[in-house]
């Protein structure tokens, strides 16, 4: 019995351009054939292979269809919120001053440690549903608000449960090197010893897909970051880095020397860092929500990254302190208005390049053999995804070949 499903009557933005195309890869009066969780064929309906015998057909009503969206940098699992710090920053207190006074990440660590696993799961699930409602089908979730073995395990376990209980791919990243917890006050090297000791156990439990660190004056030094990366690579885990957000620590070049999947933030990125990222194939993940929320004024070197051919991804960086936004579409719009990306770059940044930042080559485009993750929008052209804000044009979502309901549940066809 055929497992083929024909999704027809759509305008497809495949993001797989034909030679001489504009990058959108638009196909009018298009159709997709899916088989199980994969795309089997994409093209104009008039070119549907004669031998195709779909068991089911779905009329997409002329909607615009794009690949499913990918949010490649979030800190979705945490306790509490930090609205008071938001007020402090509006009164002129810097992010670094708040952190050094015991606020910032440490504030979220205390709230996260005090929350039960059930509470963390319930709050993270609601955040995930907000992102899913706008067409997100793949999501990265970092730990880093537990900063003890027990609490980090709890956060990573919650992230894994979201991926098994929701129609959503979740990639987990261990960010133990996020900040020094209170019990290691004044002993950052001792804490890095602990992080490196936890990693094999977390890996053995199947909780870690990648390893991250915060290389910054208020975070960890390049030498400390290198120790974490050496441990990760020894376990066969890819790395990524919060790099050059507040100052240039040479983190991007360091991460690129490990062939990092991505370097993220990058406002203070140097020419040397760009060259190293280019050589390593490392993705630059732009986080305009944090730039906006912290009222930063130093832009990432977009033109230099573009000229070097470094892939540009865009993400929400959802977290309670510096980017509490839950709209990836808003981040695409901000990437255009604040960072001067083109709409095509922004849409590629939340699809194919974001997937690349997670080491996933099987999604982000509409093409044969790719995962059958795609979104139908009440829009005419994909550039509108970066144009509108404060509006959700998502019409229907398909994940792994199954249509997802507005509440996040899979609906067999």
Keyphrases for this structure?
14 helices; 413 residues; alpha/beta; single chain; eight-stranded parallel beta sheet
Question: Which radius of gyration do the C-alpha atoms yield?
Answer: 21 Å
Low-confidence stretches: none
Biggest β-sheet description: 8 strands, mixed
Strand order of the largest sheet: 3-2-1-4-13-14-15-16
Class based on secondary structure composition and strand pairing: alpha/beta
Q: Average pLDDT across residues? A: 95
How many strand units?
16
Terminus-to-terminus distance: 15 Å
Q: Could you give a quick summary of the protein structure above?
A:
This protein is an alpha/beta fold.
Descriptive notes:
The chain has 413 residues and is α/β, with parallel strands linked by helices. The chain is built from 14 helices and 16 strands. The strands form 2 sheets. Strands 3-2-1-4-13-14-15-16 form an 8-stranded mixed β-sheet, with no helix packed on it. The chain starts with a strand and ends with a strand.
List the helices and strands and how they pair.
Blueprint (H helix, E strand, L loop, with lengths): L3 E10 L12 E10 L2 E7 L11 E12 L1 E3 L11 H8 L4 H6 L4 H10 L2 H16 L3 E7 L6 H17 L3 E9 L10 H17 L5 E6 L6 H13 L5 E4 L7 H7 L4 E4 L5 H10 L2 E4 L1 H6 L8 H7 L3 E3 L13 H10 L5 H7 L2 H6 L16 E4 L16 E6 L2 E3 L5 E2 L2
Parallel strand pairs: 1-4, 5-6, 6-7, 7-8, 8-9, 9-10, 10-11, 11-12
Antiparallel strand pairs: 1-2, 2-3, 4-13, 13-14, 14-15, 15-16
């Amino acid at each position: 019995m055929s497992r083929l499903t024909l999704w027809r009557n759509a305008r497809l933005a495949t993001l797989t351009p034909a030679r001489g195309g504009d990058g959108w890869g638009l196909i009018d009066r298009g159709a997709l054939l899916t088989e199980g969780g994969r795309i089997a064929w994409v093209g104009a309906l008039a070119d549907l292979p004669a031998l195709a015998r779909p068991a089911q057909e779905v009329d997409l009503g002329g909607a615009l269809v794009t690949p499913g969206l990918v949010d490649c940098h979030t800190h979705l699992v945490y306790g509490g919120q930090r609205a008071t710090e938001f007020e402090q920053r509006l009164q002129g207190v810097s992010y670094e001053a708040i952190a050094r006074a015991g606020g910032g990440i440490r504030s979220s660590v205390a709230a996260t440690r005090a929350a039960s696993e059930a509470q963390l799961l319930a709050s993270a699930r609601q955040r995930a549903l907000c992102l899913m409602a706008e067409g997100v089908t793949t999501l990265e979730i970092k730990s880093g608000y537990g900063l003890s073995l027990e609490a980090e395990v709890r956060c990573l376990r919650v992230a894994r449960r979201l991926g098994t209980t929701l129609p959503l791919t979740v990639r987990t990243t261990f960010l133990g090197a996020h900040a020094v917890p209170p019990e290691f006050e004044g002993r950052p090297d001792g804490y890095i010893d602990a992080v490196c000791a936890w990693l094999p156990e977390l890996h053995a439990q199947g909780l870690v897909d990648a390893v991250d660190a915060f290389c910054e004056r208020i975070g960890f030094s390049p030498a400390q970051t290198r120790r974490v990366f050496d441990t990760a690579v020894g376990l066969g885990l890819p790395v990524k880095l919060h790099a050059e957000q507040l100052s240039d620590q040479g983190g991007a070049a360091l991460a690129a020397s490990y062939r990092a999947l991505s370097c993220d933030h990058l406002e203070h990125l140097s020419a040397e860092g760009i060259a190293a990222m280019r050589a390593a194939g490392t993705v630059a993940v732009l986080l305009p929500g944090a730039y906006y929320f912290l009222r930063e004024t130093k832009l990432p070197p977009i033109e230099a990254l573009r000229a070097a051919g470094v892939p540009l991804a865009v993400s929400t960086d959802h977290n309670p302190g510096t980017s509490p936004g839950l709209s990836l579409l808003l981040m695409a719009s901000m990437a255009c208005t604040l960072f001067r990306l083109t709409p095509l770059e922004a849409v590629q940044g939340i699809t194919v390049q974001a997937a690349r930042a997670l080491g996933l080559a099987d999604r982000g485009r509409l093409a044969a053999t790719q995962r059958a993750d795609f979104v139908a929008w009440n829009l005419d052209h994909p550039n509108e995804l970066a144009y509108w804000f404060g509006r959700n044009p998502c019409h229907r979502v398909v994940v792994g070949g199954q249509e997802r309901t507005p509440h996040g549940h899979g609906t067999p066809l």
